[in-house]
Task: inverse folding
């Protein structure tokens, strides 16, 4: 068994942040994607479209953090 790095991000935390505060980019900030987090905040989640797309990507397992690591389930 390989040791789990301390800096892996939790799928469940990202899911909750995306559901409740994703329109303001909170999920992007948590993942370390500050540039797109600011853009998502300014555009109010791309008028909701970007928020829905991010939620679909997350639920399909394609969301990664800023370093390219998969989310810890």
Result:
């Amino acid at each position: 068994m390989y040791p789990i790095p301390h800096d892996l991000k939790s799928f469940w935390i990202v899911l909750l942040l995306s559901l409740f505060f994703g329109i303001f980019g909170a999920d992007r900030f948590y993942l370390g994607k500050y540039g797109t987090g600011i853009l998502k905040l300014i555009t109010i989640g791309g008028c909701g479209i970007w928020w829905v797309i991010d939620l679909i990507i997350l639920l399909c397992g394609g969301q990664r953090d800023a370093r390219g690591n998969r989310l810890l389930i």
In short: The chain has a mean pLDDT of 90. The CA atoms of residues 18 and 27 lie 5 Å apart. The longest helix spans residues 11-21. The two ends are 16 Å apart (CA to CA).
